[in-house]
Amino acid sequence: MKQQTKLKPTENKFSEHSSKMKQTEIGMIPEDWEVKELKETASYITEKISLVEINLNNFISTENMLPEKGGITVASSLPKVGKVTQFREGDILFSNIRTYFKKFWLAKFSGGCSNDVLVIRKKSSINNKYLYYYLSQDNFFEFTVLTSKGTKMPRGDKNSIMSYEINIPSFPEQIAIAKILSDLDLKIELNQKINKVLEELSRAIFKRWFIDFEFQNEKGKPYKSTGGEMVDSELGKIPKGWKIGMIHNIATQNKEQINPVSSPEEIFSHLSIEAYDGGKTSFDQRGSEILSNKFIVTNMSVLFSKLNPRIPRIWPVINAKEKSICSTEFLVFKPNKSFFCYLYLLFKEHSVLGELVQMARGTSGSHQRISASDILDMSIIVPSKEVISKFEDSIIKIMLKCEDNINTQNILSQIRDSLLPRLISGKIRVPVEVRAWHF
User: Fold this and answer.
1) What is the DSSP letter of 64?
2) 276-305 residue pLDDT tens
3) N or C end of the chain, less CB within 10 A?
4) Fold observed for domain 243-382
5) Average confidence score pLDDT of the chain
6) Residue 257 forms beta bridges with which residues?
7) What is the enclosing helix (H) or strand (E) of 380?
8) Distance between CA 289 and CA 292 in Å, rounded?
9) How far apart are the first and last CA of the chain?
């Protein structure tokens, strides 16, 4: 049974339209609120920091900021020379290249960032979390796109961005609004952390069974360390009864395509790069909104992005909706029975990813691509039917829990996104006495 997500206020309830409203240049707001330009409430930070003070974990560039406000990943490289812009915990970082990607992050630690990332620091008159949530709305990103300069690599105009207008409630009400929204985000982050632990557990089990060969034998003992028979193979010693094959022995590539434009009123579950990076299960879109052919995705498929394998995007699809499709930037693999979890975790294994990176063609970064044929022809260890069946039965439960957590995250995100515009416009007032909310 899926967990139900409910809001349970412990002290007060929201009140809608409980105060008199006034007309402003950006809409109706409560009479006791103000409208100010961003430059009155925040400023850009240009202070520099030496390269000796940064590392892969605290360096932020547009490459390791995730689209759709998805946060950040660990940087893949550092600048070679010079200094970088310094940021502090609580600053807002915004990738200023192609702002429609919505690479936007509230810093959780201090560090350094590239020149393509704007560092916005709040002034004393505004709460940084309130400012972050206000600017996280689509209206802000649309404004930055409309005022951008350049064609091939459009950049947000820094002066125009600072002219963006913001509703300003009293400071206590800013804190109360930010608390409601941040409590939702904390729950989302908790689910993400749980999924990370579950993912690490799955990978640890995979390594123990299929790299260390310490799966349980018929007596429930670890196979290799208790004298399990090993035989020679082209990939080294493997357990007796196992064999060497290729990925095409355990999976096929699904090339079936559909053009959603031909069904403009149909709703498709679109497994896009943006959805993956944003931690979504998919984006629901009408066929008229999707402008090119897409691969059809069915249950128990494994998606592998053919772009830049150095930043792997590997997506296990357990419960595909009836009309699920994915970007043709993904390769869609359909594993044989009992090999779904095995193939997914095989792709996640560092040694396998390293081999796939070596196979990639093209220049470095996002221009590199890997072909389906190269992946399908990769030599792998194929376990016995008995072992792979036991492995699948145990790991699928973990993966189902991960999917359930993602669904819960999506519900919480929808609640947050529906509350956000009403809270920051004053259509819903939050009592400043609010101290605790449970979700």
Assistant:
1) G
2) 877 788 888 999 999 899 999 999 999 999
3) N
4) Adenine-n6-DNA-methyltransferase TaqI; Chain A, domain 2 (3.90.220)
5) 90
6) 295
7) strand 379-382
8) 10
9) 18
